[in-house]
Amino acid sequence: MKVTFFGAAHEVTGSCHLIETKTEKILFDCGMFQGGQFNEQKNHEDFQFDPRTIDAIVVSHAHLDHTGRIPKLVRDGFRGPIYGTNGTLELAELIWKDAYHIMTYNNKKTEDPVLYTEEDIAQAMSQQHPVSYREPFSIGNATVVLKDAGHIFGSSFIELTADGKKIAFSGDMGNENVPILQDSESLDSVDLLICESTYGDRVHEDENMRKEILLKLVKEGVQRGGTIMMPAFSLERTQEILYMLDEMAEEDKTLPHFPIFLDSPLAIDALPTYTKYTEYYDKDATAKYKKGDDFFEFNQLTITRSVEESKGINDVPPPKMIIAGSGMMNGGRIMHHALRYLSDPKSTLIIVGYQAEGTLGRRLYEGAEQVRIFNEHIPVHCTIKAIGALSAHGDQNKMLEWIGSSGTAPKKVCFVHGDEHAATELAHKTRDRYGVKTVVPAFGETVEVE
Ligand SMILES: [Zn+2]
Fold it and tell me: Which positions fall inside the Metallo-beta-lactamase domain (predicted)?
């Protein structure tokens, strides 16, 4: 068996790994490359393999950088099954439609090409095969099982057995004790692990403090009297933040009273999926659900679905808070709010997720004094804060623990889905701790399963 890396190699996006057994060709994920642009030029290049020869694809989770090129794979002739959990496949459909919408919008403005059609999305949907956590299924001679990764709703890591060897792919590994989700399961003993390394060189603040940190930043923002902007990934970060705000507003009664807007159509569309698969909930979320508490709804929250409603936020006097995508500020409604409020010294930007190199979010995180949005130069005068504990990804400590969680470390670990520095540092730490072989593969590199 061998693995070739066709994305997320020395970078964080574009996850796509080809597994070749003696008899099967299987893809783990097929995501979009995302940097400064929503839809990077690289997405339009031909696949380095023939999509018609792929037997099946197994999807770790719905995020665009893990699923976004699947309709293109279908466009180019892939007709095999697409496996993932119910939650993943349902959210992937929303993600594809949302991406299509953004691409056609950009196409009208800048003539950027659109990666696939609505027909390709419909075709991809017809190839979906939902599977349950922990229930093994076969792809030819290979046996595959999905386990909970605790990263986003429905997210999984993948274990595959074939040719007398066993491999695993972490997908994206969740942070500890996150709201709503269960903690990630332990890894089985494997010969080779493909492992993400987004935060491979960082340690988050104490996750038990995340609610306190969020409350403190929100209170400070309210005190400054301006607008609090929170760019958040529409899937998961947004729902977790709503869950915590709901708790602060209704149970703890600690949240100051001021208007909060959920200004993300994708996040709004995803809410029904979150209320459908309650078996994914952790203990606390289950208890709330059983009590009848709708944890995506509280008094001061307004959902702004339409463009008109979104524009209406401008007329609401501050202090106010806006939660909007995209999470890395490379598109979406947050751009319009940033244009308006970044230059306001009373306003606050709270960054809650990973910011890839080249994105506006990253430049602001690194302290840019001036940025360009829609061809306008905007001076940055607002206060900028970041909360690592709200990240959807495990930090270095979590990853090191998880890699050894079966009791026997994998024989070989390939680090993907991380900037070069993060991937290399996690590789060194893994080698030091477990004495195993580590690889930080380049794009197109093949690694044998030994
Ligand atoms: Zn992810």
Answer: 13-233
Which residues of the chain, if any, have pLDDT below 70? none
pLDDT in tens, 140-198: 999 999 999 999 999 999 999 999 999 999 999 998 888 999 999 999 999 999 999 99
CA of 155 to the centre of ligand 1 (A): 8
Q: In what order do the strands lie in the sheet with 446-448?
A: 128-131, 82-85, 56-58, 25-28, 17-20, 2-5, 446-448
Predicted pLDDT of residue 79: 98
- DSSP line for 18-35: EEE-SS-EEEE--PPP-S
Instruction: State the distance from the centre of ligand 1 to the C-alpha of 37, rounded, in angstroms.
Output: 18
HSE of 9 in the Cβ direction (CA atoms, 13 Å)?
A: 19
- Same domain for 26 and 66: yes
Q: CA-to-CA distance for 170 and 304, rounded, in angstroms?
A: 35
| Residue of 227, 210, 149 lying closest to 181 (CA atoms) | 149
Convert the pLDDT of each residue in 29-49 to its tens digit. 999 998 777 778 899 999 999
Residue 355: CB partners within 8 Å, gap ≥ 6? 328, 329, 361, 362, 365
Distance of CA 128 from the midpoint of ligand 1 (Å): 19
Whole-number Å distance, alpha carbon 63 to ligand 1 midpoint, is 5
Q: pLDDT at position 306, please?
A: 95
Query: Which residues are paired to 109 by β-bridges?
Result: none
Given 390, 411, 431, the domain boundary residue is 390
- Clarify whether residues 442 and 400 are in a common domain: yes
What's the pLDDT score for residue 109?
76
- The model's pTM is 0.92
Q: State which amino acid sits at residue 13.
A: T
Asked if residue 197 has a cis previous peptide bond (ω within 30° of 0), the answer is: no
What integer pLDDT is reported at residue 106 of this predicted model? 81
Distance 195 CA to ligand 1 centre (A): 13
